[in-house]
Amino acid sequence: MSYRDFIADPARDCAVVAHRGIWREAPENSLLAIQRAIDAGYDVVEIDVRRSADGGLVLLHDDSLQRMAGVEAAPENLSSRELSALYLRNRDGGTDNAFTNERLPRLVEVFELTRGRIFLHLDVKDRGIIPDVIACAKLMGVEDQVDFWAALKTTEDFAWIRKTIAPHDVLFMAKTRLNVPDAATQLALLRDLSPSVCEIYFDHLEQLSTLDGPLRDSGMALWVNTLDSVACAGFTDTAALLDPDAVWGRLIDAGISVIQTDEAAALKSYLAARRS
């Protein structure tokens, strides 16, 4: 099944997205963290993509290598060979976590590891390199397993998405905010684009009613992050561990069908309990 077909399947359960892999048991964005997400049977793993000085594509969230690799440099200033030689600190890095035997991975290594085994949410940190990432996915034959994400705030964003991503027929996810002064503009752009999936931000669940009509009827899936650092309206992982019905349950009942979390095991267990 392709990622697009999975997202569009009305019979599927809420999808579990493992944020940066299972990083509490391995360095975030590492091959080991991704392998553990595969082993655990999660639906999607989120990874962060940056470019090296010589045009290679690597996995790293920050604009500096300091936190994860102990090097005070931007990945864009080092070659692919130099980056691939770097060892990663465990978990979410920093001086409190020891270095491991895991090296900073190249995107092609990730595509090879995950082919046919798990879907990938690609958080490409510089949207200007998205065409290179699409080309890499196509070259590796995994273009139907990945998604591409971008903010949809302005008509310029809309035009860029239509020109840069849409012609490649890959799964695209728009990021739309219903809790900002220009929410009506973003909503209008979302209606015009009508993507397969939308990462949505809101201040209260009732705001989701503004999506009723053609967008909901089109089958567009709604994606929410319950990560503590970016969650909205208090729907956080920490709160979900205390009362999953009040967080994950309310989101699912409101029509959310994709949840990105740092507590993937807990969410998967909760979904199983809801089905029983």
How far is it from the N-terminal to the C-terminal residue, by CA? Answer: 25 Å
Number of strands: 11
Major beta-sheet overview: 8 strands, parallel, barrel
Number of H- or I-type helical stretches: 12
- Beta-strand percentage range: 15-25%
Tell me, what's the shape?
globular
* Superfamily (CATH H level) name: Phosphatidylinositol (PI) phosphodiesterase
Domain count: the total is 1
Low-confidence stretches: none
Strand order of the largest sheet: 1-2-6-7-8-9-10-11
- CATH fold call: TIM Barrel
- The CATH top-level class label: Alpha Beta
Order of helices and strands: HEHEEHHEEHEHEHEHEHEHHEH
Tell me the Rg in angstroms. 18 Å
Structural class: alpha/beta
Residues in helices, as a percent range: 25-40%
User: What is the mean predicted local confidence, pLDDT?
Assistant: 97
Q: Give the CATH architecture.
A: Alpha-Beta Barrel
